[in-house]
Structure formats: C-alpha cells, structure tokens
Amino acid sequence: MSDDLYREAILDYYKHPRHKGHLAAPDIRSHDHNPFCGDEVTVELKVVDGIVVDAAFDGHGCAISQATASMLMEEILGKTMEEIRAFDKEYILEMLGIEIGPVRLKCALLPLKVLKAGAYGLEEWPE
Amino acid sequence: MSDDLYREAILDYYKHPRHKGHLAAPDIRSHDHNPFCGDEVTVELKVVDGIVVDAAFDGHGCAISQATASMLMEEILGKTMEEIRAFDKEYILEMLGIEIGPVRLKCALLPLKVLKAGAYGLEEWPE
Amino acid sequence: METMGPMRIAENLLSDQTAALRQDFPILGRVLPQGQPLVYLDNAASSQKPAAVLQAMETYYRQYNANVHRGVHTLSEEATTAFEAARAKVARFIHAPTPRQIIFTRGATESINLVAYSWGRANLGPGDEVLITAMEHHANIVPWQILQEQLGFTLRHVPITPTGTLDLSQLEKVLTERTRLFCFVHVSNVVGTVNPVQQLVTAARAVGARVLIDAAQSVPHMPVDVQALDADFLVFSSHKMCGPTGIGVLYGKRELLESMPPFLGGGDMIREVTLQGSRWNTIPYKFEAGTPAIAEAIGLGAAVDYLTQVGMEWVHAHERALTAYAYARMAEVEGLQILGPGPEARGGLVAFTLKDVHPHDIAAILDRSGVAVRAGHHCAQPLHTELGVQASARASFYLYNTVEEVDALVAALHKTRQLFAGQKG
Amino acid sequence: METMGPMRIAENLLSDQTAALRQDFPILGRVLPQGQPLVYLDNAASSQKPAAVLQAMETYYRQYNANVHRGVHTLSEEATTAFEAARAKVARFIHAPTPRQIIFTRGATESINLVAYSWGRANLGPGDEVLITAMEHHANIVPWQILQEQLGFTLRHVPITPTGTLDLSQLEKVLTERTRLFCFVHVSNVVGTVNPVQQLVTAARAVGARVLIDAAQSVPHMPVDVQALDADFLVFSSHKMCGPTGIGVLYGKRELLESMPPFLGGGDMIREVTLQGSRWNTIPYKFEAGTPAIAEAIGLGAAVDYLTQVGMEWVHAHERALTAYAYARMAEVEGLQILGPGPEARGGLVAFTLKDVHPHDIAAILDRSGVAVRAGHHCAQPLHTELGVQASARASFYLYNTVEEVDALVAALHKTRQLFAGQKG
Ligand SMILES: Cc1ncc(COP(=O)(O)O)c(C=O)c1O
Ligand SMILES: Cc1ncc(COP(=O)(O)O)c(C=O)c1O
C-alpha cells in the first residue's frame, strides 16, 4: 500500500540498516541534521574515476530518515558523481515508494541533502 | 432627541461660543489636546476664596469639544474648586444631554480633562 | 479627464460587475442603527471581507486547526500545507521570485519595524542617513525616529509641494552619498498621490541607497510587481486588501533577507538552541518567531485568490473611474477643499476639508446618513502640518463601491453644509 | 494519588460534562482521511476553538468590521467598543488591576521579545544578569541571547534535576545581586512541571530582581491571578486557550509599563508626530503600533468568556484527573519512559520516549489511528539535552478530552511497540 509510511521494506531498512558505519578512508564526507526533529545523517563515499565504489552512512533519528539513508547508500553504488548531482526529490520518493506529507518530507530528504552537499563539495546544502 | 450628537443647543454653542477668549489675569491656566483628532482646549480661571468667579476657554476642534468647553465654562461659574474636582464623565454627559460613542467621548471629555488638571495643579490629567 | 463631466464618468463604471461583486461581501447588506444602509467609504483604513475569505478561515478552524511546521499528525500536515500555500499565493500576487521572500508579520507597521530593527541595526550608524518623505504614514516615520535615537544616524525627508506631491526639485539635496535607505510610500493614504517609484528607485540606486516601499495603499488597489519596481523591501497589510486583521507582509530581496540578523527570537526561527547560543533558521522562518498567524495567513491567501479572480486591472480601473467621479461631484460642494493632486493621478481616495466644519463633525454627520468616512490626521500628522491643516475627512473606495454611494456621500455633504450654515463666531 | 488505580481515576472524571462540552467544538466531529475519528491530543501546541469563538469573529467581519480607535462612524465605534471590551475581559480573567495593563501582541513569543527590546534595552548592560531556567521554551531563551549579544549582560540559568524539576539547591548560586530579571516558565510544555512561583518570586524579590512568567501553558489550564503571583510581567498566547491564532498577551505592572520606552513605532502608539520627533501615547497603546489584530482580540475575548463559563477550576480538575489516568495507563506500555515528575505535580500533558522508536515515528504511527500527538523537541531543545534525550513524543490534554481518548492513545502505543518489535540492528 503506497500511502503507508511504514511499509515493511522501510521498517526493515530501519531495523536492519545496510551500509551503516564508516569507511576506512573516505574521499568525501558530509554531515547535516534536521533542526526540527534532531535527525542526523553522515555520509561517506569512496570515489574512483568519478564513480562511487563504496558508501556508508551513520546517524540517528526517525525510521524515515535512517531507512532512506540506508536505501540511498545501496542506490548510489556504481553511480557517477554527475548522476548523483542530478538526484532530486522525485528520485527519493520513487525509491521509497510512498506518499509523504510536508513535515516528514524533511526527514526523507535529509540523506539526499547530505549526499548532494558532499557531491558538490558544499558545507551545507542550501534549502 | 437625546441620541443626537448635533442637537440644536450644541451646534449653537459651537457657532456662538460663550466664554471664549482669555482672562486678564487668570489664577489658573491649563491646556491639553487630543492627539487623535487635534482638538485643543485652554481653560483660564479666576478664583476667589476657592470659588470660580470668572472662566474662559480658547481652542479649536470639533463641535463637540468646543461646545462642551463653552457649556462647561458657564457651568463652573460660582462653583467651588472642590466641586470642580469632583466632576466626572457622567456630569459632562448629563450636561450635554446626549449619548456618545467611545471615540467622540474623548472629544467631549477633553475640556473636563483640562479643567481638572487645572483644578489639581497638574501638568496633564492622567488618562 | 478634465473635460469629462461626472455623468460621462459614471457611465463608464462597470456597475453590473460591481453589483455582482457586492453579493460577495456579507457586510454590505447591513442596515445601521440609524436605519440607513451602510455606505462604507473607509476602505483605506480597513477593507471589508468577501465570504470566501471568512469561509477559508472557518474551514481551517472547523476542519484542520493545528499548529504548523512541527507537527507530524494529519491536522498539522494539512495546516502546514495550507499555510505555506498561502505564502506562495502572496508571492505570486506581487511577483516575488520565491515564496521564501514573503515574511508574515502583523501588518505593514510591523514589517517596517522589522526592517528597522534587523537591517537597520546591522547597517546604520553615525554619519549614515535614512531618507523618508513628508507624506509618510506614521508607520514609516516613527520606527526610524526610534532607531535614530539608538543608532545616531540622521533622518531626513523629501518635502512636498502644496498640492501634496513630492517636491522632486529638492531630491538631490536630501538623497546623498550618505543615504543608506530611502523609505517612501507608493500611494499616499491622505493625498492619494501615486509616487513615481521608478524615478525614485533610480535616484536611490545612483547613490547606492536601498529602498523600502510602503505599499499598504497600492497592493490592495493595483497590480504591483516587486521585481518590476526593483524594490529592496516592500510592505503591506492584509486587512486593507479583503484579508483578515492580524497579518501583513514584508517582501525583501533574497540576499538582503539572508544577510540580515533575526528580529524576534523564539520557536521556529532557530535551527538549533543550546543554553550557550543558537543558530538561525533559513528565510522566511528566521523572521517568524513563535506560532504564526495561521488562520490569518490562510485568509490572506483566500483574499489574494479573490482579488486575482476579480482582476487587479479591473479593480484599479474601477477605482480610478469612481474617484474621478467623486472628485468632480465633491468639488461642487460649497466650501469643500480637496487635498492633493487632481483625479488623473491619484489612488482611490479623496481627503478633504469643509469650511468651518471640523472633520470629526463631518464624519459624525455623514454617519447619520449611513456614510462611513474617516476623520483626523489618518496617521499622517506631518503631512497635514505641511499642508497647513489640522485634520481632514477622507472617503476611500474599493472594488465594491458604486456611483450611487458617491451620490449618497455628496448628498450627505450638502446636508452637513446646511447644518453648520451661519457664521461661526 | 499513588494508590489510586487508573479505573478509580477514570470514574472520577465528570464525563457527562465533557460530553456536553465536546458539542461546542465543531472540529471534534471530524473524521480523518484514514477513516478514524480525530483524537486530538496536541493541545499544548494549539487548542481547538469552540463555535462561540468562531461566531464572535464572524459577527465582527459580517456586521461591524472596521478599523478601531480613529474612526467616528458607527462600524468603527462598534469595533472599538468590542475590541476594548475584549481587553477588559482578558484583564478580569487573569485578575489584572486594570485593562490598560493588557497589551495585545501576536503571542507569548512576541510578548517576551517586547519586554526584551523595551525593558531590556532600558535596564540591562554589562555587569547585569538575566536568569532563565534550563526548562524554558525557546521563546524564553532566544530573545535573551539576541539581546545579550547587543547589550553585553550575562545570561545564566537554573539547572534542572533528572526528573525535570528546577534544581532549587542551585538557585542561590545563579540568582544574585546582579540579577535584574528572572524569567521562568509557570508550567513546562515538556515535562509538565508546575514551578513554585511563589518561592521563585520571593527569591527574586530578595535580590531586587524583576520576574517574567511564561504562562503560555498555565493561563489556558488553571486559574491564574497575576496579582496573587505578584508577576512583574506575564505572557501567554490566545491559540492555546480556545482563542484564535495571531494574538497573545503581555501583562505588566503598571509603573513598569509606563516607564518603558516603546517597542514598535507607528500609528496608534503616538500622541503626536512631527518630522522632528514624536511623543508616545499612554499604555496599553504605547505598545500597540499599527492596526491591531481586531477580530482576534474579539475572538480571544469570547474564548475567555467561554472558559470562564466552563470554570477554570473545573478545567484544571478535569485535566489533572485525565493526566493521572494517562500517566498510569501509559506507564504500562513496554519500553515507554515518561519525562518529568509524577502525576500529582504536573500540568495536563505527558511527554515520553519509547525504546528504539523515534518520536517522529511514534507520532506518525499514532496518526494512523487518528491520535494526534506531537513529536520533536517541542521548542525546548536545551531541556531535552539536559535530560539526555534527542526528542520526545507528547500527549497534551484539554477540557474536551476524555478517558476513551486516552484509551485510544494507549492502544495505539501498544500497536507502535508491536510494529517496531524485533531488535534494531
Ligand atoms: C511554555 C511556552 N512558552 C512559549 C510558547 C510560545 O508560544 P507562541 O508560539 O504562541 O508564541 C509556548 C508554545 O509553543 C509554550 O509552550
Ligand atoms: C500608507 C500606509 N502605510 C502604513 C499603514 C499601516 O498599516 P497597519 O496599520 O495595517 O500596520 C497604513 C494604514 O493605516 C497606510 O495607509
């Protein structure tokens, strides 16, 4: 059911996150948090010839933000930095496969913000 | 008709004000204005043995404020300062014989404020 | 225009559409205690509200009332969506590049104070100058006086001509290299003058000054495009444009708003708070501390929808025609003196004096005929002082006013004249 | 209370009266998109509004909408009368000596900022101290931080104990001869703690400090008497007490308010304006620049009437019983940790965490059962930091909530537990 924020897959990624932790020698490291709820996400990337060869996230917060981060790490493996820079809101929503209201959207988009700030070498992704 | 702000008497006092002008050597002189509409009233009193023996007002503004000032000058002749200090809103409304809304009330009460400030020797009558 | 008689003007008024519009405003059916139907000509003070605006607020309160932004539950999500949709509507209405440049305040007055406290503190000091005009509303004078005391800059003003237009021959003298901010009213709420924004902005740019435009009397009455005007800041109030009380807008250029320190502190305007210090949120939230006026924003959004549907070009044309008609008819009243420029170059209002009758008395007597006009200095005391009058009476029009209402005004003015006939003395 | 089981407590609830009261609130009949009836437990964020309040505002807009104070015509006189009557009602409600001590603001947040900008600027400088507490809402922290930057005084705080009460053993250390103002919350919006106002005020008096009481969570829920509390300043918001958004109150002692410089500049707050300078109006108008929130004041007046009719003693007793019941029932949920003191000494709210489930997820999952609670830091980040939690979920009650609604909350909490069962990995 596509309007269910807590469909099995999302809960599963939350309870058993993939790619959670840290890389030995990341090329890119990026961090941000959502002031309204305290969600935090750090993303680390290993990049060879402009291609993501390894990725990890760390953080804490709600199931939406953390499951999204975990899913996103899976998605970007093998992607070029250029492809990553083109990721947008729709990409995330499609990946999650759920509808999401304006407040929780912030949770879902936090990992993307962190990732894109990293991909562009920015301190913080402008809202 | 008692709800008529512009009954004949009031218009008459406005068009032909009594006691308008200045006294030669007033014992008491008091002035104030209404910031919301620019009405101004000055009152001058001659007082002998605590009794008002002569009174004059000057000023400009709406018919209500100016007519009230004129009527009030007539009323206080022969009154003691003590009696004047006891004057209140009801006194003025009775004198005017009209009902009056909250905004125009300020106009009607301005001459009283000036008079009482004078009677008490205050710079300005506290609201 | 000069040669067009009142009757010709009246014919030009699209009275069919007006009659239909009047149905949208429940209050216009009111019969006053004195037994007269309401003739509401005090629109520059506050306009009436169409049912659609009241309905939008009712629906919020009856269906999805909740605090915004921080809520996860359905009501709060709905309220947040409606609140932010209102911001986007307002942005479109004045052609702001992005909704985040729309900051909700209590009204034009708070908007100007926000700029004074925030931008002013960060940018003004001894040696600097702020320029206003002699025709400003108190809202665009007093905040600068208060700030001047604290920061020690110099406050100057553009004088006016006897007909109530800016004396532009003096502009060079007062707009100088030291001028950091030029604050002026778009349309005067007393003399009705429509100021030459483009010329003023160009002059300000030439000396490197920012401009703040008080659009309280323009945004409700004519199409306004903040980008075409090149406004740095522009302010207005909801209650004068078919919207509810309790809310208004500050528009600002993005880089300006982003560089400014916050004004009020509290919830929603922060990113992070510790007992040692805080970091600010992005715009517009940085300037919206605490629970905002939620129902009011939604109501303002509905007002903007309503006005857009009617069409701001139509509103403007209707008011121009009505004002021209009123100007001509009122000029016939003996002893009546209209303040400000001729009808061809004014907003939809006419302020005036009547020989030997105080404006308060005019308003009170018109009220007995059901005609609501304002009397006093209309929060523009310096302007009245410059024009050499204590106070004035003012009839101000909006989209729902009719030729018949102007006729009622003129008839009541003649009655007033009669009542006060006989020399004062 | 300790020995009274949940069922006994529930029986004590006057559910007949509550059932009748619920009819007054149109929104409580709402069915949510998920098909569930609304169980609104987010009252600390914003309360629902009875029909009487909406009606009062509708009547204003449909019958006598006009700007206040400066108008001579019928509508403006009626609006002025209603607006000032609302002020008098609010004054009576909190036992203020005179209506002029009631200043209308946008809400508690603006009220505190007003005191900071006006009283603060006139009274604070290097060497002075302002004291807050670690359980303040951001509204009572950030304004002081902003001001501190500008004026250079020192901001200190009373720490809290692990159960979320003020650590009064530390009071002597932080409340000193240098303390000019002590700002504290009456009832915490997170831990529910009811602070010992009398003790705090007495301590402040002993060192000559003024007190500002944040009553945003007390005035809506219990009888408050500003004179009995001896508050110098006291603030609250309309939208949390059955009134509309967009308005709130600053109460102040008369001599304080009279001696303070103005805050915002503009119309209505002046006695006289010239281009050279201005003189201020008397209180409360000195602090109410520009067109006020007229409909909102009238709505707040109606809210105060409504609450008075229900009886604040009853509201308080009802919430206490409901909270005690909720406290007991919620404690049964596995992994649920309630923040703050026991039920005997708290306001009508319960903030909590649930092991391994983020508060946002709690709120989102409860929402699927129609239960509206809030999640996050509730604008009290430092308090959460002190308690060692990132965020919490919060159920908060009001006069219309019932035992059945608490049961629905508890049932949904059990469901949440189940959904998240299985160890996090
Ligand atoms: C204790 C406390 N203080 C202050 C506020 C701020 O109120 P408002 O957002 O209405 O200005 C709130 C409400 O969020 C509160 O709970
Ligand atoms: C030109 C102008 N500026 C500013 C204001 C102030 O608006 P408000 O009182 O809604 O803040 C007004 C309205 O009175 C106005 O006419």
Describe the structure.
- The complex is a heterotetramer, with two copies of chain A (127 residues) and two copies of chain C (425 residues).
- Chain A has one domain: Sufe protein. Chain: A, CATH 3.90.1010.
- Chain A has helices at 8-15, 63-76, 81-85, 89-96, 102-120, and strands at 28-33, 40-48, 51-60.
- Chain A is α+β, with helices and mostly antiparallel strands and 127 residues long.
- Helix content of chain A is 43%, strand content 20%.
- In chain A, a hairpin with a 6-residue loop joins strand 1 (28-33) and strand 2 (40-48).
- Chain C has 425 residues and is an alpha/beta fold.
- Chain C has a seven-stranded mixed beta sheet with strand order 2-8-7-6-5-3-4, sandwiched between helices. In chain C, strands 11-12-15-14 form a four-stranded antiparallel beta sheet, covered by helices on one side.
- Chain C starts with 5 loop residues before the first helix and ends in a 6-residue tail after the last helix.
- In chain C, 65% of the residues are buried.
- Chain C has two domains: 6-45 and 312-424, Alpha-Beta Complex (Aspartate Aminotransferase, domain 1), CATH 3.90.1150.10; 53-308, Aspartate Aminotransferase, domain 2, CATH 3.40.640.10.
- Chains B and C meet through helix 1 of B and helix 13 of C.
